Structures are given as structure tokens and as C-alpha cells.
Amino acid sequence: MASGLMIQGKWTTERKDQDQSGKFKERTTTFRDRVTADGSSGFKAETGRYHLYVSLGCPWAHRALIMRELKGLQDVISVSIADPILGDKGWSFSEAPSAMLDSVNHVQYLQEIYAKANPKFTGRVTVPVLWDRQTQTIVNNESREIIRMFDVEFAELATQKIDLYPHNLRQKIDQTIDAIYMPINAGVYRAGFATSQAAYEEAVTELFEHLDRWEIVLNKQRYLCGKQLTEVDICLFTTLYRFDSVYYGHFKCNLRRIIDYPNLWNYVKDLYQRPEFKATCNLDHIKRGYYMSMTEINPNRIVPKGPILDFDERHDRDRFAHAG
Ligand SMILES: N[C@@H](CCC(=O)N[C@@H](CS)C(=O)NCC(=O)O)C(=O)O
């Protein structure tokens, strides 16, 4: 990774993401406060108060963008899109196509926002970040928690009344988010950043076992938890959408492509063709983000032209009952 991390509020480029056996180390997130509808947490859900920092390349940040669209929170929560390339100083803001300057904190680097929130911050400087204008701090930088807040705590302010965490499915949704996290969402990174053959093979084998399993499930139902779109579909989509363009080649997750799985491929197309998903998808930022930032696995920074994929191609998921 060309990036670095912060130690006691100071940026350093000395960073190792693997343990001694070559396994990619799990990542911890550091800001774990919550916005609540009633404000009991100190962070009340309010229009115009919160700002979301994202990269369009990042699958975790992508989750938050999709949820914001699905809930119709565009006028409630503002967004800054970082430059697609993660450089020596981490994420930055620029006027590159589809990126933007930071209109809220007016900084050049995301690390400055972390330092504002905590001048002694130690850790990785990651997107997504949910910033609170009122208390001038980062509320949360864990995508799974950010999407839950948007879904549940901002529900009153949402212009779309869709519920992606319905009461009758809550346990199943949480279990499924857990079930796909390590083997699939993190699994592609565990394969891509492994520095030993054994660590790579373990991650790839587990990844494809799980994809194979979901392929079978999706032969019987439209979405991961049944006939209704839920949070976990967002969590899987952002990994699958990048898979054939980035993870298959760059991360060597190449036992099969997503287009080789009839159900997974049609499932991705089905979700992509919803306008709220499509509006957040940018393969140019994704490809440049991965191939040009992760120089230890692609030192010449060449971005492949292919593969040619048509996410707008007709899908066959209408064959299932659909509840929302
Ligand atoms: N657990 C976090 C992970 C976020 C994450 O790892 N983001 C990556 C981009 S895909 C990042 O910002 N990396 C910057 C770095 O490692 O320096 C979440 O789900 O929100």
C-alpha cells in the first residue's frame, strides 16, 4: 500500500499490513459513536449536520453511498468524494473527474480530519468517515455501523420509506453480514495482500467456497435474506461489483469470475440496475484506485483496459417473488 498511518497524531509511511506468516492483518476501526434519532447518544439525527467522506473506489465507503441513495438522504447528509488514488499521504481531495475538494473542513488530506477529531489519533486513516459539523468530530468510520445509522436512525428524515433492516429479519441480517464479512468482503483483501503462498491459498479457497454457497442460495431466492432487499445485499454488492475488474486479476481471486456464476452475476446486474445503486458506481475510480494505489502488488501502476462487462444487460431475477 502506498499509504501510511498515524501514530499519536503524526503521519508515517512505515506500515506493515501482514503478520509473520504472510497473512493480511485484520483492520480495526476507531471512531465508534452513534447518531441516534432521539439524540440520546449526543449525536442527534438532523438535516445538514453530518457529512460523509468517501472514495468511490472503496467497497466499504460504497456501502454508505448506496444506503444514502436508497433512503433518499442526499439533502440530509452531504458528501465529499476523495481523489481516486490513495497516495503517500493517504486519501486526498482534488478536482479530478468525479472527485471534489473538501467543502466542509477545507483540508487537502483526510488525515487532517482525523487529526482534528483526535490530535493524538493512532491508526489507519480510512474511508468512509461520518463527520459531525456541530461537535467538529468524527462520529464513526465503520461502514457497517454507518449504514445501520442511515437506515434506522435517520429513518424519520429519509425521503424514501424503504426499510432495509425490517424487524422480522434483524437477526438473520446481522448473521448474514457476519457470515459474508471474513470470507468474502475481507477475503478478497486477505488473498490480495497475502505475502505467503499458504496465506493466499487459504483465503482464496475460503472465498470461493462461500461464493459457491451463495450461488446455490440465490438460485432459490432473489436476495440474500429472502424476497426482500436488505442491508446485507448492499454489503455483498460492493464486493461483487468490483470482483471481475479488480479482485480477479489484481488480487488473484481467479478460480472463477462472477460472470461465471449465473445467479451471482444476475443478482449483481439486478442490484446495479436500480438507479440508487447505479448512481454510486464508478468503475474508473475503482480500477484506478486499486491498480494505481497498491504499488506493492502492481509496481508499474498499469490499469487494465478490460474486462468488458455489461451490467446493464438483461437479468433474470424477475423469476422470483419480490417484496420491495
Ligand atoms: N472497516 C472499515 C474499513 C474501511 C477501509 O479499510 N477503507 C480503505 C479503503 S477500501 C481505506 O480507507 N484505506 C486507507 C488506508 O488503509 O490507508 C469499514 O468497513 O468502514
Question: Which features would summarize this protein structure in a list?
Answer:
324 residues; alpha+beta; Glutaredoxin; Glutathione S-transferase Yfyf (Class Pi), Chain A, domain 2; 2 domains; 6 strands; 36% helix; 7% strand; binds glutathione
Quantity of strands, as a count: 6
Number of domains: 2
Calculate the mean pLDDT score and round it: 96
* Secondary structure category: alpha+beta
Give the class-level CATH name of the largest domain.
Alpha Beta
* Percent helix: 25-40%
User: Strands of the biggest beta sheet: in what spatial order?
Assistant: 4-3-5-6
CATH architecture of the largest domain: 3-Layer(aba) Sandwich
Judging from the principal axes of the Cα atoms, what is the shape?
A: globular
CATH H level, superfamily name of the largest domain: Glutaredoxin
* Helix count, DSSP H or I runs of 4 or more residues: 10
Q: Extract low-pLDDT stretches.
A: none
Give the DSSP E fraction (strand runs of 2 or more residues).
Answer: 5-15%
List SSEs in N-to-C order: EEEHEHEEHHHHHHHH
Biggest sheet features: 4 strands, mixed
Task: Classify the fold: give the CATH topology of the largest domain.
Answer: Glutaredoxin
Q: N- to C-terminal separation?
A: 40 Å
Rounded Rg: 19 Å
Ions, cofactors, ligands: which are bound? glutathione
